[in-house]
């Protein structure tokens, strides 16, 4: 620590900055480790440099070249942005922006690899595998699938946030709790999730919904991660892959992609992205769009909507609806008639249209 003190003594300037004051403890520790790692490298590679102001762009790029070995572009870019932010506040004087060496370091090109969303078949296998581990784990996956909440919000969901009478969950996500003025998100309860929550005894509806999982998540998070890995393994889903050029395995299908799955299922079902954004608590539709993965049926439907363009081309013939779809549509209008939502004349008109299409 003493060897690094001469170079890293300006860390307090960053800790007292408006940005650092709003950081969660884990984020603060991660940024501190990043700064110390760079300070240790400077001490070893350039021992004559004792002040952050003396760091040049070439030194920063030299450090990045050594740091990049075996790491993903996303990890490298995170390190660049972290050091760029730290130097912005520890450099004193009016020309701090111009003196920041990390401002002139280009971000690494991404390799296009991202965590994939889970298919419905994989989700079903996860539910079966989680059920064998206990009721709480089945409930944890059900909450994630039907709400799109992040792992921490699912594990630490409280009964105060659940309103079974109104069939909604209203929660301030942990990730955005420190800013956006604690803006809550309102999530309607899916009937299956409402039924699972309704099965809980009344005397147990206080505190955390998942008591043992919440305890483990807040005291020994590694135990939750290990249990999730075993559930994915039971479901036959690989959670990581080994990519060429990386020293560690890269996550591919973990708990968080269930959030991607929720967004994609809702969007593919025709729910507007702005509505999905409101449910999952994204600050912009652009972020929700990043989570949205169009299904093949949605893509095909979009392409087929383009009218014929070539001269003489005949419009495509629409395939006749399947018998199951035909029967379901008839049942829908029959149910509407029995409830008095449509008149007898409207029922016969709609029935004639359905029969004509079939």
Please state the average pLDDT score.
78
Bulk shape: elongated
Rg, alpha carbons: 27 Å
CATH topology of the largest domain: hpI Integrase, Chain A
Q: How many structural domains are formed by the residues?
A: 3
What is the helix/strand order? HHHHHHHHHHEEEHHHEEHHHHHH
Largest sheet, spatial ordering of strands? 1-2-3
Low-confidence runs: none
Indicate the percent of residues in helices: 55-70%
Reported for the largest beta sheet, the result is:
3 strands, antiparallel
Beta-strand content estimate: under 5%
CATH top-level class of the largest domain: Mainly Alpha
Number of helices: 19
How many DSSP-defined strands? 5
C-alpha termini separation: 79 Å
CATH superfamily of the largest domain: Intergrase catalytic core
Q: Report the structural category.
A: mainly alpha
CATH architecture of the largest domain: Orthogonal Bundle
Descriptive account of the structure:
- Helix 4 crosses helix 6 (73-90).
- The protein has helices at residues 2-8, 11-15, 18-21, 25-45, 57-68, 73-90, 96-99, 120-131, 135-147, 151-155, 191-198, 211-219, 221-234, 257-268, 273-280, 285-291, 296-304, 323-338, 344-357; strands at 162-163, 168-171, 185-188, 240-241, 250-251.
- It contains 19 helices and five strands.
- The chain has three domains: 2-104; 120-268, hpI Integrase, Chain A (Orthogonal Bundle), CATH 1.10.443; 323-357.
- It has a three-stranded antiparallel beta sheet with strand order 1-2-3. It has a two-stranded antiparallel ribbon with strand order 4-5.
- The chain is mostly helical and 358 residues long.
- Strand 4 (240-241) and strand 5 (250-251) form a beta hairpin.
- It starts with a helix and ends with a helix.
- The chain is 55% helix and 4% strand.
């Amino acid at each position: 620590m003493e060897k690094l003190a001469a170079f890293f003594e300006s860390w307090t300037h960053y800790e007292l900055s408006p940005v650092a004051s709003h950081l969660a403890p884990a984020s603060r520790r991660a940024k501190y480790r990043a700064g110390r790692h760079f300070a240790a490298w400077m001490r070893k590679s350039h021992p004559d440099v004792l002040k952050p102001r003396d760091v040049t762009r070439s030194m920063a790029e030299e450090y990045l070249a050594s740091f990049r070995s075996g790491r993903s572009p996303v990890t490298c870019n995170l390190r660049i942005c972290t050091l760029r932010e730290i130097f912005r506040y520890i450099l004193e004087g009016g020309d701090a922006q111009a003196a920041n060496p990390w401002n002139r370091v280009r971000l690494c090109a991404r390799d296009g690899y991202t965590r994939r969303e889970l298919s419905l078949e994989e989700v079903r296998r996860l539910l079966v595998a989680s059920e064998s581990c206990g009721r709480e784990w089945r409930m944890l996956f059900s909450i994630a699938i039907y709400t799109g909440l992040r792992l921490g919000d699912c594990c630490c969901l409280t009964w105060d946030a659940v309103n079974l009478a109104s069939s909604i969950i209203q929660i301030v996500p942990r990730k955005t709790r420190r800013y956006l003025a604690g803006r809550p998100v309102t999530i309607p309860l899916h009937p299956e999730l409402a039924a699972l929550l309704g099965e809980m005894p009344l005397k147990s509806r206080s505190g955390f919904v998942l008591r043992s999982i919440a305890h483990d998540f807040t005291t020994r998070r590694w135990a939750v991660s290990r249990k999730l890995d075993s559930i994915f393994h039971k479901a036959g889903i690989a959670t990581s892959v080994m990519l060429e050029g990386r020293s560690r395995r890269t996550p591919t299908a973990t708990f968080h992609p269930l959030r991607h799955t929720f967004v994609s299922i809702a969007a593919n079902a025709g729910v507007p992205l702005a509505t999905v954004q409101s449910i999952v608590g994204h600050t912009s539709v652009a972020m929700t769009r990043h989570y949205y993965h169009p299904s093949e049926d949605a893509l095909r439907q979009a392409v087929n909507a383009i009218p014929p363009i070539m001269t003489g081309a005949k419009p495509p013939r629409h395939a006749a609806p399947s018998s199951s779809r035909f029967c379901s549509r008839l049942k829908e209008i029959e149910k509407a008639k029995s409830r008095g939502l449509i008149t007898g004349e409207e029922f016969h008109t709609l029935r004639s249209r359905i029969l004509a299409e079939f």
